[in-house]
Amino acid sequence: MFRFKQRGAIQYLEAEGISALDLVTHAFCTRLGGVSEGHFSSLNTGFRVADREENVRRNLSLIADSFSIPASRLVLMDQVHGDRVCILDGDGPSSGSFPACDGLITDRPGVAIGIKTADCVPLLFVDPVRRVIGVAHAGWRGTALRIATRVIDLFEQRYASRAENIVIAVGPAIGVCCYQVDTPVYAAFSARPGADRFLHPCRENGRWMLDLALANRIALIERGAPAGNIFSDGHCTACRSDLFFSHRESLGMTGRQLNFIMIKDGCR
Ligand SMILES: [Zn+2]
To answer: What's the Cα-to-Cα distance from 120 to each of 61, 68, 110, 140, 243, rounded to whole Å?
Structure first.
């Protein structure tokens, strides 16, 4: 179950299955509560859109202040629609650098790791036993590359996690109602187990409707994550462009919402 909450001016969704662990602060931010205007109204966190940089910086600091993220401890990525996952440890990337990857993992308390989205699937991971967190950005390319399972691979390899302990929240993304795809995307998924569950032919010839969130869920379950540990939000970013930035619905002229997770200071 996901619930809307508010801190300061920021309205966001929280996954109860993650909150119940009492280990992390996390949020799937909406587009509401920021200072950007027009297409980027109002909590845009994307620098690579035509928004004013000062507004993006202001929005990021509004989020950091609202969630008590220590100054310059919000680590984001240069998201490239790949399957590379970076580890944030003593030698890893720090805030201010933007590693070119689509997943981040850390066990450092007080460091927020985030993903920016506008239709792509944001995934947050927590292993409450080994006290490790992760994020992944899964558009169709990342989903086809199974980036979500790469996060579990690295949890196991680097932190001795067990897949059965990992709790995962799948945030708001474009829904199967609105995500029409063409042949190259269909071809990337059609041979996958369970493809008939997340890929449906539509009335238009040569087009399909893709359920990205479900494709990620199925891949995670195949990789060993218990279905009962995966919490999915049902909001479609395109249907609810009043609440969320949607690349598809806006024909590309829109902002990016922030989704983040942070181990609470003292939880170590
Ligand atoms: Zn929709």
So the answer is: 23, 26, 26, 8, 15
Centre of ligand 1 to C-alpha 240, Å, is 7
* Tens-place pLDDT, residues 172-217: 999 999 999 999 999 999 999 889 999 999 987 889 999 999 999 9
Ligand 1 centre from 161 Cα, in Å? Answer: 35
- Copy the structure tokens of residue 9: 């001016």
Q: Give the other-Cβ count within 10 Å of 115's Cβ.
A: 28
Residue 179 alpha carbon to ligand 1 centre in Å: 7
Mean pLDDT for 48-72 is 94
Q: Any idea which fold 2-263 has?
A: CNF1/YfiH-like putative cysteine hydrolases (3.60.140)
Distance between Cα 103 and ligand 1 center (Å): 25
Give 206 Cα–ligand 1 centroid separation in angstroms.
Answer: 20
Instruction: Give the Å distance between the CA of 159 and the centre of ligand 1.
Output: 37
Q: Domain residues of the chain, as ranges?
A: 2-263
H or E segment and range at residue 239:
none
pLDDT value, residue 236: 98
- Ligand 1 midpoint to CA 259 (Å): 20
What are the tokens at 188? 């990337």
Measured distance CA(58)–CA(78) in Å, rounded? 19
